[in-house]
Design brief:
Alpha-Beta Plaits; globular
């Protein structure tokens, strides 16, 4: 099997799920410094039209953070690795309340970074992320500290990502979020495509693989080699944009061809009725 994902073919209908940081947008020094390329919003709109609205963003960011990044677009989305979820009709899905489990961690993380300049805490309310991108010299200490905290609380999930460790209450993940979307219109009855870049996306890849979909890992300077559950890989964020643009073109052509076939079929039926 080649690394590059194929374009979906055949009569199957597809649903598209996309991670954000490191997948749709390049990683930045801090989450606040991430920028959306000018052509990305129109591309997402084309893709959403091409799959009849069955497109959702699946991210560790909060829904508020997702909306701020992609404004004025307001897409179906799962935030905080699934703890927040907005359906295609704009309503919020009930997913539980993850914040209480995190309260004891906040002072401990604050004390840890106080003597280690360059570390950054990102408090998403539903999860806590400790970034060391600007202080890689602390990487070993951060990972060791994070593992100690997680080991002390079995209800706490530790996700080790690209120069970040993230703490999340157990009970939700990106795979469960994707499965929840697929149980609802307009996702219902469709085969899934999921693109992600990091350890936080492994649950999503596993769910998509189980449903015979396309799982795509986006590589980068920190992840040169394909690893994990994803069946396909692309070398960069830019390469994913190119593949998605080709996919949007492919869906648009297929839709036009289907429309032409329907029009010709209707015309033939009318002709035969006129002769009878």
């Amino acid at each position: 099997m080649g690394d590059a994902p194929p374009l979906p073919e055949g009569e199957d209908r597809w649903a598209l799920f996309l991670d954000i940081d490191g997948t749709l947008v390049a990683i930045a020094a801090t989450p606040q410094e991430v920028r959306v390329e000018p052509g990305l919003r129109p591309l997402l709109e084309r893709l959403q039209a091409g799959c009849d609205g069955a497109l959702a963003l699946v991210s560790g960011r909060s829904l508020a953070g997702i909306d701020a990044l992609f404004r004025p677009l307001r897409l179906p989305a799962a935030g905080l690795h699934g703890w927040e979820r907005r359906r295609a009709d704009g309503t919020a899905a009930a997913t539980g309340e993850p914040t209480a489990r995190l309260a004891p961690l906040r002072p401990r993380l604050a004390a840890f970074i106080a003597t280690r300049p360059g570390l950054l805490i990102e408090d998403k309310q539903g999860s806590l992320a400790l970034h060391y991108r600007e202080a890689p010299r602390h990487a070993a200490a951060v990972r060791r500290f994070a593992r100690e905290l997680a080991a002390a609380d079995p209800e706490l999930r530790l996700i080790e990502g690209r120069k970040v460790v993230e703490f999340q209450p157990r009970g939700m993940d990106k795979g469960q979020a994707i499965a929840a979307f697929l149980a609802e219109p307009p996702f219902l009855g469709r085969r899934p495509i999921y693109a992600g870049d990091d350890a936080t996306d492994e649950d999503g890849f596993a769910t998509v693989n189980r449903l015979d979909g396309l799982s795509i890992r986006v590589l980068g300077s920190e992840t040169r080699r394909r690893a994990g559950a994803a069946r396909y890989a692309l070398p960069s964020v830019a390469a994913l944009h190119d593949w998605l643009a080709t996919l949007a073109d492919h869906w648009a052509l297929s839709a036009r061809a289907s429309g032409t076939d329907r029009d010709e079929g209707a015309g033939t039926a009318a002709f035969h009725r006129a002769l009878s």
